[in-house]
Amino acid sequence: MQFLRYINAFKRLETPFYFYDLDILDQTLRLYTKFLRKYGFKAHYAMKANANPRILEMIHRSGLGADCVSGNEVQLALDMGFDPDTIVYAGVGKSDREIRTALQGDIFCFNCESVPEIRVINDLASQMGKTARISLRLNPNIDAQTNKHITTGRSKDKFGISQWMLSEVLEVIAACGNIKLIGLHFHIGSQITDMKVFEKLCDKVNGFQRWFGQRDICLEHINLGGGIAVDYQDPLGNPFSPFETYFQTIDDKLEIRKGQKVHFEPGRALVAQCGFLISRVLYIKAGKGKQFAILDAGMNDMIRPALYGASHAICNITSVSEKQEVYDVVGPVCESADRFGVAVTMPETDRGDLVAICSAGAYGQVMSMRYNQRDLAQAYYSPDL
Ligand SMILES: *Cc1c(COP(=O)(O)O)cnc(C)c1O
After folding, report:
1. What's the 267 CA to ligand 1 centre distance in angstroms?
2. CATH numbers and ranges of domains, the chain
C-alpha cells in the first residue's frame, strides 16, 4: 500500500491530520486535462470541494479556471492568480456585496439562478458602469440518482431556472441594459455514477438549445457543471474517475452548435482521492454485540458521513495482526452522528494504531469546523514528508 513509505513520518505527527498525496492529484489532473484537450472542452474547478492553497495552486497551474459559489471564493480565485476570464460564479443567494466583488473582478460569467437575481446584478452593474456576462442556470428536472442531499436538478430543488419561466427571463434580460446573456449552465448533482444520467442531461440541453435556436438566440457557452463520481469503495485500487467514458458520452450525445464552447465544473473527481484523514485510535470499547474503535478524529474534521450518510473506506495502516475484526468506527464528538463507519472490517486494532479515512480530499477539510472547541486538523503533503 502507498501509505507504507509515509508511516514513519505519520507516526511522528500529531493526529488527526489531513494528508494529501500530490502525486495522485498530479496524475488526476494530467488525465483530466488530456481528455479536455482531446475534445476542446474547458473546465472550471469547483473550489468549494477543496480550497487548500497547495491544491488550488496545482489546479491553477494545470490550466483550469475556477467555479465559485460565494464572493469570498471569487476573491480567493482572483488572489490565487486565476485569470478573471476563467472564473464563473453560481449560487441561489448571491448578496449585493458578493455581486460587487465579482463585477469588480470582471469575472467571465455569473451563473444566474432567478429573475430577481438578474435584476439585482443589472442594477449593481449599472451603478458600477459595467456589463455583466451571465449564463442561465437551468433546472432540467432530472433526478441524478445520487444521495438526496446532493441532488440539485429536480424541479423541487431550489437551484436553477425552470423551463416555464424562460419567456419571462428573456423579457427581463431584454430590458436590462447592463446584462449580456452568453450561455446556459447546468449542474444536476454530485457523485453521479450512472452515465445514463449524463445522457439524459444532454437530451435536455439539446431541447433547451432548440428552444433558444427557435428564438434566434445564439449562445456561445454551454456549461454542464460537475458531478462525476469517485470510487469510495475501492479508492486505492481505482483512484481515477472514468473521465474518458464521461467525455465520450457528452461528445456523442450533446448537439454542439457552431462557435459554441462546452465547459465543465469538476470538483470531487479531481481532489477526492488525493486526500486522507489520518487519525489515531484512542480506545477500543466493548458495546452490545459490537465493539467501537474510537478515533481522535471526529465529525468536525470530516462531516460527510454524519451529514450525508456517506461511506468512506477506512484502513488500519499500522496493525500487523493477521486477525480480522469488525468495528463501528466513531469519533469523540458528543453526537451519535459522529460515526465514520458501521461494521468495518479491519485487522485487529489497538489503542495507538493509525487509521486512514480514504477519499477525504473533497468536501473534507474545507467543511471542517471547531465544534466542541476542537482544534482544526493540519494538512501535510507528499512529497514533502
Ligand atoms: C458543487 C458544484 C460543482 C462541483 O460538483 P462535483 O460533484 O464536486 O463535481 C460544480 N458546479 C456547481 C455549480 C456546484 O455547486
Report:
1. 6
2. 65-265 (3.20.20.10), 273-381 (2.40.37.10)
C-beta 47 within 6 A of ligand 1? no
Q: Report the alpha-carbon distance of residue 61 to residue 59 in Å, rounded.
A: 5
Percent of the chain with pLDDT over 70: 100
Please tell me the predicted confidence (pLDDT) of residue 293.
Answer: 98
* Candidate from 110, 135, 190, 363 with most ligand 1 atoms within 8 A of CB, to mutate: 190
User: Residue 22 in contact with residue 56, Cβ under 8 Å?
Assistant: no
Cross-strand bridge partners of residue 344: 327
Nearest partner of 18 among 5, 6, 4, 29, judged by Cα: 6
Contacts of 196 (CB under 8 A, 6+ apart): none
Phi, psi of 237 (to 5 degrees): -80, -25
Ligand 1 pocket check for 113: Cβ under 6 Å:
no
68: nearest Cα among 238, 58, 79: 79
251 CB burial (10 A radius; 0-12, 13-18, 19+): middle
Tell me which residue of 122, 52, 128 sits closest to 94, measured CA to CA: 122
| Least confident stretch, 66-80, 137-151, 214-228 | 137-151
First to last CA, the chain: 16
| pLDDT score of 336 | 93
Q: The C-alpha cell of 306 is what?
A: 454524519
pLDDT in tens, 94-108: 999 999 999 999 999
- The closest-lying atom of ligand 1 relative to the alpha carbon of residue 266 is 9
